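tool=predict chain=A
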Amino acid sequence: QNRPWSALPCACSLLATPSAMSQDLRYAMPSQQVAMQGPAGQAAPQPPIEKEKIYQLVLELTNPDTRENALLVLSKKRDSIPELAPLLWHSFGTIAALLQEIVAIYPLLLPPTLMSPASNRVCNALALLQCVASHSETRALFLHANIPLFLYPFLHTSSKARPFEYLRLTSLGVIGALVKTDESEVVTFLLSTEIIPLCLRIMETGSDLSKTVATFIVQKILLDDLGLQYICQTYERFSHVALILGKMVHGLAKMPSARLLKHVIRCYLRLSDNPRARDALRQVLPEPLRDNTFAACLKDDQGTKRWLQNLLHNISDASVALNPALAGGMPLTDPLKRPL
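tool=predict ok
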């Protein structure tokens, strides 16, 4: 059976600590797949594969009769084939074949009838698309072809069944691979789509792993100046982000996750770089971040503890005293009034 072995490593390699990662993988993946993982949850190194064999497998992707096996083998071997992304992109009909795999399961999304075999197969196709999204030579071409939009129907799903969870997580992994490059072109593209509301919904209702990758994506968008400006342009946008982050903080106070908390705090810290958002955070920052609720959770993470200290300093009265220009700033504008 073709298991979605690529789903969790694809998404989780974007973030997390080795120990936390290995624990999640042991919980979420079949035991025989865990054996394939390295110490950080990464796919274990695969033995070299001959170029002629690679070419043959890529060619087999365009044949419906041989595609399933080619998807499985190439997705497993992708980390040991540096030239795979350009080869997939520039070979005739290959990207179209991968998109056929994606579109073919749209009818199974609603009503939610997707089963494991179909989910596993499309996850292998998504793993190859993530390879294309990650490569410097093909990333811009990937965006210009609007290929990420084909993944959004998967992010719209809400079923908590495992086939759907793997599908969402692998799709998030593709978007995460794009934002990980810290390129403004990627952020500009994503802001022209519905990725932020999609990520916010997953941050509110998804599994721990999906929440973590979705929060990572929002964090990387916020770290770009254009992304921060977009979120803080209207009160409606800011309040939606702040509302979801607040819910996550209160949830983490009950069920701590150091990895997820790290990305939540980084999002708050970045929001505090905007003067009007900083003023609003003085009113809405959740109390668990102000007291010692997360002291035990963060005791071994000096970097995140420093982020939290910087956040609390930014929104404190002391920061206003040091920089009087921040005092009396106008609040974020109402969306029905003039923009920021």
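Confidence is low (pLDDT under 50) at residues 1-7, 16-41, 320-331, 333-340. The chain is about 65% helix and 0% strand.
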